[in-house]
Amino acid sequence: MDDFLQQCRAVIGSQYVLIDEADRKPYETEWRQRYRGHCLAVLRPASTTEVADLVKLCRQFKISIVPQGGNSGLVIGSVPDSSGSSVVLSLRRLNKIRAIDTDNNTITVDAGCILNDVQQSADNSQRLFPLSLASEGTCTVGGNLSSNAGGTAVLRYGNARELCLGLEVVNAQGEIWDGLKGLRKDNTGYDLRDLFIGAEGSLGIITAAVMKLYPKPKAIQTALVALSSPEAALELLNLSREGFGPALTGFEFISAICLELVHKHFSDIPLPFSEAYSYYVLLEISDHESESHARQLAENVLGQALEGAIISNAVIADSMTQANNLWKIRENISMAQAAEGKNIKHDISLPSSCIPAFMMMTAQLIVSHFPGCRLICFGHMGDGNLHYNISPPIGVNDQNFISNQEAINRLVHDQVHAYNGSISAEHGIGSLKRKELLRYKSAVELQMMRAIKSALDPDNIMNPGKIL
């Protein structure tokens, strides 16, 4: 491999070919620190041309490639396996904002741009880039697209796929496809863009993208609502859709234990209610008229919900500080879970209408098989995406409990499948859920996916062992 590494150094410079174990480790270790693979080297190109040249070298030497952005994924999709025979190709040095077109409402960015930086660039141009995730300070646009990330504003703006108009991609042959068009209508054959979005780097490497921008709202109104059941949350969702219309931006469902864990591990975050309730919904509306109009709209809809006994209580944020504190509750749930100990995560989606029944039936199954375990459910109920996580009973060794992961996954995923849902809503498949995908995808679906993979990556060098 010396000849291969030497040629890589000639392409991108010796300092950007990392072979020492200490240098490789951050790129080989997945975000939750539960798995570490091993690679031959980490390659850090700084341009699309350099990416293409490296792919050509990898193809020549028959070396597989693991594309990587911010490495904040949760399904072991952006780290290598344990063989040490692949390279990690990090896109972090491709981090330029290429162009902002405020008339066309688009921003063209390198794949290695941090999501928060894209949001800030849009804001500086008096525009909104609405993709928002808990990991937005570390995740990259390329990674967001490769996993078709969702986040908190899908209800209003859609997933990463809906926010993307064009891509630049290096394919498995090392050729550059320039599809960086800011068009909202282009009916000239197959939509190649959508092949690469959500493909987790298994068909090619996204190096740049044209993303949609939106006018900044005049006002954002945030409220936390307390209610008694998932059925009440669904009723509130329907009322909110009718009352807020397109202004409804976020509808985050939160179970009581989530607030308890956040309060336990982040006690500086103020609790909005003096008493505890069974469930909560974090609402956000984006208004294009005024602060007063947004406030009146929120009061009208939530007033109806109170009068109709759909909700038990509500707090409407009076200031940006209070709104941020309400969002901190939601954004710190995952961190609070991590501080509490290991847990078994599920990133699932269901028709919103099925969520109450799914939660009731699945809880009964889980508790009957694993008495005392804690069901930590939260997520983007407005688009049907739940993070349905299982923590061990208090006092039970979490490592021992994690050994039940396969059995618990089977219970949860079988229920998801029974309700015509998906076992992956926004995190992807990676290698973690590959066997699960084989269980729930039909033979016809798998055959078509394999045909696409074989056609675009016949040498199987693009992130092998992920998805398929």
UniProtKB/TrEMBL annotation:
One of its GO terms (molecular function) is catalytic activity. Pfam families: FAD-oxidase_C (PF02913), FAD_binding_4 (PF01565). Its cofactor is FAD. GO terms for biological process: respiratory electron transport chain. Residues 35-216 form the FAD-binding PCMH-type domain. Keywords: FAD, Flavoprotein. It comes from the Bacteria. InterPro entries: FAD-bd_oxidored_4_C, FAD-bd_PCMH, FAD-bd_PCMH-like_sf, FAD-bd_PCMH_sub1, FAD-bd_PCMH_sub2, FAD-linked_Oxase-like_C, FAD-oxidored/transferase_4, Oxid_FAD_bind_N. Belongs to the FAD-binding oxidoreductase/transferase type 4 family. This is FAD-binding oxidoreductase. It comes from Undibacterium jejuense.
